[in-house]
Design brief:
Elements lengths: L2 H6 L2 E5 L2 H16 L4 E5 L10 H6 L7 E2 L7 H19 L3 E5 L3 H12 L4 E6 L9 H12 L2 E4 L2 H9 L7 E3 L3 H8 L6 H7 L6 E5 L3 H4 L2 H15 L3 E5 L5 H6 L8 E4 L4 H9 L3 E4 L3 H9 L3 E3 L8 H4 L3 E3 L2 H14 L15 H14 L1
Parallel strand pairs: 1-2, 1-4, 2-3, 4-5, 5-6, 6-7, 8-9, 8-11, 9-10, 11-12, 12-13
Helix pairs in contact: 2-8, 2-17, 4-5, 5-6, 9-13, 11-16
Amino acid sequence: MNRREIVLAPIVHVLGARPNFVKAAPVIRALGAAGAEQAVIHTGQHYDERMSEIFFVELGLPEPDVNLGVGSGGHAAQTAALMIGLEQEFTSRSPALVIVYGDVNSTIAAALVAAKLHIPVAHVEAGLRSFDMTMPEEVNRRLTDQLSDLCLVTSPEAIGHLATEGISPDRAHLVGNPMIDTLLANLDSFDTERVRAAHDLPERYVLATMHRPANVDAPATAAALVGHLHGVADQAEVVIPVHPRGRANLLAAGLDEHPGVHVLEPLGYIDFIAAVRGAAAVVTDSGGLQEETTILGIPCLTVRPNTERPITITHGTNRLVTFEELVPSVRKVLEAGAVDGDRKPPLWDGQAGPRIAEVIMEFLGE
């Protein structure tokens, strides 16, 4: 197979949730510059316009070639629907390679279907581990790595995780973090003052995001979390764009009943990171936000017992906290003020996309 034939065989990107779009943008751009034919499948796992479509516009992503429109549902039902739709697409397109991102249900569904059709798989953000098998994301990422021909790794410790699990070193490539490519490429667009005016935000605030099942799915747990967020709001106003997951439980627990809590609808990428950039601190259970705050130099408190991104703790601004530790920890970071965001993890330099494209084109050439 010569290089021209490789270029004509499509590379298919499978995207399902907002973090996938942020990671995919620099990869799609770099592969396009390398002459690869590409197709984008949007699974519709995130189906709210503010959770998906706006990202295509803001990040300059090509319009999806197809949107499967899967929507929400239980893990089994959603994954089954994803697999059925993806099998039809892969069969009709005969891709040279399927690229999957992160750890959502769309990712594992695409990897399973591609593996059974004998289509090579590349996993962007491979090797991350929380070692918490109660998290559906941990199940997804472990299985996806086992099925992947290329494990494209964002941080050095992930290489060790893959080796421990028996994945051959020649399948693992440390390429850096494409989410950071997108962040650095858009720095000039993150206008905090514009977002503050548009959403009537206070001058000083803590930005919060909460969506993990362990934090928001059980009404009693969500109510306990709301109580601690109200405690944070006693110290500094809290701005919280509310994810569809957990919205009902958080609002039923009285999230918006504290005068210092500003509840927003989900924001697009540009407005959201602009709001993060203007925050005195961030309280979250998100994975990607731990990385973005590391680069922006914003103190981050992650309300989880573990993280699959320990490099954000050793190199960045992040700290794991329990519900009970949240209020005193916020007090501490607010008193300490700004942190040093100049020290960055290895290869988080805005060039992960080109490195990924180089690995992929070499793989296809072989």
